[in-house]
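Throughout our pipeline, every protein is held as a single compact record rather than as scattered files. The remainder of this section carries one protein's record, kept here as part of the documentation.

===
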Amino acid sequence: MRNASNPIEVRGYPFFTNFLQIAYRVWTMQSVSRWLKGFFKKTEKTVETNQMEHYPSKKLLIIEGMNCGHCTMKVKAELLEAEGVQRVQIDLTKKSALVEGFTLQNQALIHAVAIAGYQVTQILGH
């Protein structure tokens, strides 16, 4: 039987009840500990990879016609398929895409955006 004040209670067996309570607390603490360790590992790894990845070529594309998250996903997917592109960051409010990679060709980027169904109005960067 369970009691509202004590979720793990077996009436008539105080030793067993205490054992269950201790086991439950240890299991809960171990689960939280494992979750926290996993969380911090992911965070550390993300920070390391962001610091390590420096691409020699960056271009800022001003794109006309993007209005929603679906639009940005289509543009990002097509840009990542273009030759030399390693990373793409889309800013919907500015209607722009920051493209990073190796030997980025303007025509390849314009073509990728056109395949997604949008138009590049301006390209900034080297």
Summary: The CA atoms of residues 69 and 94 lie 13 Å apart. The longest strand covers residues 57-64.
